[in-house]
Amino acid sequence: MSNHTLADVIRASAAAHPDSAAIVGEGRSVTYAELSDRSSAIAGGLVAWGLQPGDRVAYLARNATEYWELFFATAKAGLAVVPLNFRLSADEVTWILGDCEPAAILAEDHLTHLLPADWAGHKLVFNQTGEPEAPEGWEPFERWLAAQPVEDPKRDLGGDALACLMYSSGTTGRPKGVTTTVAGFLWAVDAFGAMFDVSPASVSLVPTPYYHIAAGGWSLIALAAGGTIVQFTEVTPANMLGLLVGHKATHVIMVPTVMQLFITSPEASAADYSSVEHVVYGGSPISETVMLGAQRVFGAQLSQSYGLTETIGVTTFLRPEDHVVGPDSKLRSAGRAVPGLEVAVMDPDTGETCAPGVVGEIVTRGPGVTKAYWRNPEATEQAFWPGGWFRTGDAGSMDEQGYVFLKDRIKDLLMSGGENIYPAEVENAIMAHPAVQEVAVIGVPSEKWGETPLAVVVPKQGESVDADELIAFTRERLAHFKCPTAVEVIEQLPRNPSGKVLKRELRAPFWAGHDRSIG
Length: 519
Description:
Number of strands: 26
CATH class of one domain: Alpha Beta
CATH superfamily of one domain: ANL, N-terminal domain
Shape: globular
Radius of gyration: 23 Å
Number of helices: 15
Strand order of the largest sheet: 2-1-11-10-12-13-14-15-16
């Protein structure tokens, strides 16, 4: 491993490529030399404030160059960064600040109201387009930074020292702080950078917020390679297309639903994608239709990654050579374990390893897996089986070749007439319907069966969905007991701030008056 600390990452890239563009796109563009110098000045300022090794510094803002300046500053000062979801409520932000107790925070001026008025840490405020409005108690970031000498304090930590604290979405309660160590990040930089051929010539388009491990992790890999990241402050199809083409992106990170927009929009499908070498997607499997369309439009390699915040975003990897149609196609799988990680399927009740093809809980262990949840020993204990196996909470199976097939979140399992139904499988079938934009399948009460599947569908713009026709459509693709018994059409699915569908909200009206919410 060439870098021993995260601070070494930016030092090495700045030494090798001082005048190369590190960050372009929306926000302030910087070279590697500028990124390194500004991070050194910030680091020195944090040390001068009296922050001690291991202290946390929070970031509450949209994607901005300031995030990476702060990230590498905390690395140089022996601190840890805490990127906060800027879509959270004031109550949620207050709770997280109380949990991680940062010594300082850097925030955009329009988000400062989310902090409690009596919060006692050091407060820096910035604006991406000019001089910020600094509320009482806040110090303008650029003014503060200008007063700091450009001197690297070289107080960086390595190994199992905390580097980053990301909070899970918390759909079942208060969020958990996921700890990522310096060693974990450095392992990911080496392992994934090699897998995806990231180099100084790479231009990476990462249109998700930095508080997501996918954006933060991939961007770090690109910066470690001396490549360029194309930054988004606000993501829309139009600016994503414009930035992709305008900056000649070589590596593009997106979800299948966004891929579908690119291949169905006349303007997007006609654009010049000759620069694109690799499209990496995650979040859900890809259909044959979308895969073939993406191969036609982008003319690039496709890879699927599956992972969690707790695994630095990638656990398994469906390689480009697996993206083929045929009787032995692996397209419905999430691929095989990333080299260096172990993946298995275990019985969620006993912890015994499942035979090939038998559904259980996906578990993993290795250098990219979190060591613990922040100040939450109970959640940490529940998350690990003996032997260091991390429990993902995802249900799935593995075939004889080691390919993982996800079924659903274990808690999302439906039982109808004694049969297990995994909503993700039903949703994948429904998503193949040409009129469907999004779908969530939930269990609703049934006197006969205990519960039966209901499909909550969002139609594509200008399309309509007929319930009987859609049910017949799924019956052509699934065993009948798995098919929805009813369809409800709505304008949009309820989501939490991280974009996950809140199925509990969809279920609630149907289970009102029942003493349990499953059949």
